[in-house]
Amino acid sequence: MVKILKKEVMSVNVSLYVLETPDIAAKARPGQFVIIRVHDKGERVPLTIADFDRKAGTITIVVQEIGASTKKMSVKNAGDSIAGVVGPLGMPTHIEKKGTVVCIGGGIGIACIYPIARGFHEAGNNVIGIIGARNKDYVIFEDRMRAVCKDLHITTDDGSYGKKGFVTTVLKELIDSKMHIDQVFAVGPAVMMAAVSEVTKTAKVPTFVSLNPIMVDGTGMCGGCRVTVGGQTKFACVDGPDFDAHQVDFKELLQRQGAYKRDESCHLDKVIKEQG
Predict the structure, then answer these.
(1) Does the pTM of the predicted model rise above 0.90?
(2) pLDDT at site 262
């Protein structure tokens, strides 16, 4: 059993959990993920490590309530326990001193990009952050991102906070301003990462994306995170989750993501009825 030390509701259906996991915290690196099980018979859910504290022996995860398992996680509070946490898993993000690195996070992906942005900052890079959300209520990790970014740009779809538009709106502006960008790194919904890739491909800016959002069981067994990269079949959980964005077949990826939406919706409805 793994104890929940802290829970913080960050926005609608999004909560932060600090877990007591000294062994995982000691080895965690930016870009990696863990697999959690809420109860003994629960499914395995891969979640990005949003933060880690080696001294305190803790990791932080951010959970968005979108499916049956995350719905069950949402009722857990500080002092409760979950059945288990396995990790750290996945290949760590390759971080080195590049120069100017633009780190982009969309939605729940803002929590995923934070440790990567922090890693590039600690490596001596000039980090420019762009984070985007549906509206002001869904903007998370703003203070954390400001602490590691030279400049932080915020966008909202409805213009309720920051700049109205998408993360690509700001990215295009930075590129058009002739700012020298050595690398772009993006995490968020697949459609957002695809859009970022299109923008930077035209500008010939090296770009990497984390495909954590498409993972299912996190072990390479289910094949749910199968993706074509540079004409070769890869699995986000064991070969990634980071890939060269310009080599990813996003069209194929987006088609596959919709394959099980009906089954997922039915199972979620069942859990909601069980919880009353």
Answers:
(1) no
(2) 53
